[in-house]
Amino acid sequence: MPADDTKFSLRSIAVAAFGPSLLFGLGEGAIFPVIALSAKGLGASVALSGLIVALFGIGTLINTIPAAMVTTRYGERRAMVGASIFSVFALILCLLAPYAWVLGLGVFMIGMANAVFMLARQTYLLEAVPISMRARAMSTLGGTMRIGLFIGPFAGAALMHFIDLPGAYLVAIAATVGAGILSYMLPDLEAPKSTTQAKKPGPRINDLLHAHAKVYVTLGTACSLVSAIRAVVKS
pLDDT digit string (tens) for 104-129? Predict the structure, then answer.
């Protein structure tokens, strides 16, 4: 169990929990305003440009379950570092894309990395924060990500003033590299586990889907629709 409520403070995990998310969000915020412009520059139509922007949300949605498997198997810190590296390669692909479909692939990959990164952050908070403070920690996590998304376009625009559209991608690459380095330097903060209990294998995905089918069909469908609406609004 995490530390008890009387001794725990969010400040003690602020850098570990929220710093990488701030940088990762800054990187994504830097490129969101220019993805459609990049697509148009590669000859894409208005409709195709909108689809390419939407591929970020599609990649995040499709990779949610695999992200959980990656985080469970490799741990929160390794998952974040891996997601950052994957995202950097995707950003380079976007920066150097010769065709619109290559740009779309890069955006889709960034969405996949986003699913892993954010799930790893949430896993960390579930392990490190007392249950009475988890809602506050989760809302703070979302807030730091959005602060990064807010700062990102301004940072990208500042460099774009000198080198045009590539500036936004270079800002995103630098921020994502920073998020990966910070994640690598910080240890996983896992809850102490009892040494008297034998380690049991975790449940398989098929078993979870069968056991909670009603929840997934009802609440899961509603959450998916809300996520789709948010993705459309963001696009």
Answer: 999 999 999 999 998 888 887 777 77
* Dist CA 67 CA 119 (whole Å): 7
For the whole model, what pTM was predicted?
Answer: 0.81
Cα separations in angstroms, 112 against 66, 98, 115, 123, 193: 9, 22, 5, 17, 31
Side-chain half-sphere of 50: how many Cα atoms within 13 Å?
5
**Domain check: are 121 and 53 in the same one?**
yes
Report the C-alpha gap between 170 and 99 in whole angstroms.
19
Token pair belonging to 209:
């889907």
Q: Residue 83: which domain range?
A: 14-191
For residues 120 and 160, state if they share a domain.
Answer: yes
CA distance 110 to 166: 16
